[in-house]
Amino acid sequence: MAAPRGRLQGKNAIITGAAGGIGLETTILFAREGASVLMADISEPALAAALTKVKSLVPDSARIETIKCDVSKESDVQAMVESQDSWGGTDVIFNNAGIMHADDADAVDTPDKIWDLTHNINVKGVCVVALVGSATPQLAYTASKGAVLAMTRELAIVHAREGFRFNALCPAPLNTPLLQDWLGDDQAKRHRREVHFPTGRFGEAIEQANAVVFLASDEASFVNGTDFVVDGGMTKAYVTPEGPATPAPQNLGK
């Protein structure tokens, strides 16, 4: 990996869903680039383990702290943001927390409680979104992603002259616990997804985290209101090539 350049030096960041996956990888890269990071997650034990990992990998990091936050609860989110007032305010928020519930199905079989739970977290919580939603019946999840894409564009335009930028990170299916635990040992279900990757493999969390570093940096000062696609070419593929999969980069948090 290239040596850190201090691209986020002096910036205060909040990362939700920071205890694992994309959130943890992004925290590590933000810390390497000089940012002070408030790691937020619903699980305090997972946060504690993630904080230990970050500090072991970036011992000379600026300020790294944790806070328990349920992004579906306005009071939790308000407390999270206000906790950075003493830091001098917030420069970057990466809305990464989200769920993909096992009981999410099609329009007939998705229970109301699963619809409400998914939208409370993925939309109300302003989750970072995936461009393609889902390829199999997951009605609540897919609808929540479309809602956040639309909301991101609206916020980007309304607040542009206040100096705020809003962009939606749109990843392909990733090699993270959120998806891999859901796929389990079902090889047929796994193959239905892998066949669509031009690279022949799932994406890795660090590949998304690198994109987030760019979007959070001053290098992206004119990038606003975009659906920032980091999917290995999946959404552009009609027929995928044959041959062995490309090598995957190593995640830092493992």
Explain the overall architecture.
The structure is a single chain. Residues 101-108 and 124-135 have low confidence and may be disordered. The protein contains 8 helices and 6 strands, in the order E-H-E-H-E-H-E-H-H-E-H-H-H-E. Helix 1 links the parallel strand 1 (12-16) and strand 2 (36-41). It folds into 2 domains: 7-97, Rossmann fold (3-Layer(aba) Sandwich); 99-246, NAD(P)-binding Rossmann-like Domain (Rossmann fold, 3-Layer(aba) Sandwich), CATH 3.40.50. The chain is an alpha/beta fold.
Present the secondary structure layout.
Blueprint: E1 12-16, H1 21-32, E2 36-41, H2 44-57, E3 64-68, H3 74-82, E4 92-94, H4 112-122, H5 139-158, E5 168-171, H6 177-183, H7 187-194, H8 205-216, E6 227-230
Parallel strand pairs: 1-2, 1-4, 2-3, 5-6
Helix pairs in contact: 1-8, 4-5
Summarize, please:
By secondary structure, the protein is α/β, with parallel strands linked by helices.
Properties at a glance:
254 residues; alpha/beta; Rossmann fold; 2 domains; four-stranded parallel beta sheet; two-stranded parallel ribbon; 37% helix; globular
H-E string = EHEHEHEHHEHHHE
Q: Output the CATH homologous superfamily of the largest domain.
A: NAD(P)-binding Rossmann-like Domain
Quick one: biggest sheet? Answer: 4 strands, parallel
Give the spatial strand order of the biggest sheet: 3-2-1-4
Measured between the Cα atoms of the first and last residue, the distance is 15 Å
Task: Tell me the domain tally.
Answer: 2
Average of the residue pLDDT scores: 81
CATH fold title of the largest domain? Rossmann fold
Structural class: alpha/beta
Beta strand %: 5-15%
* Helical residue percent band: 25-40%
Radius of gyration: 18 Å
Question: Tally the helices: what do you get?
Answer: 8
**Morphology call:** globular
CATH architecture of the largest domain: 3-Layer(aba) Sandwich
Q: Low-confidence parts lasting 5 or more residues at pLDDT below 50?
A: 101-108, 124-135
Task: Please identify the top-level CATH class of the largest domain.
Answer: Alpha Beta
Number of strands: 6
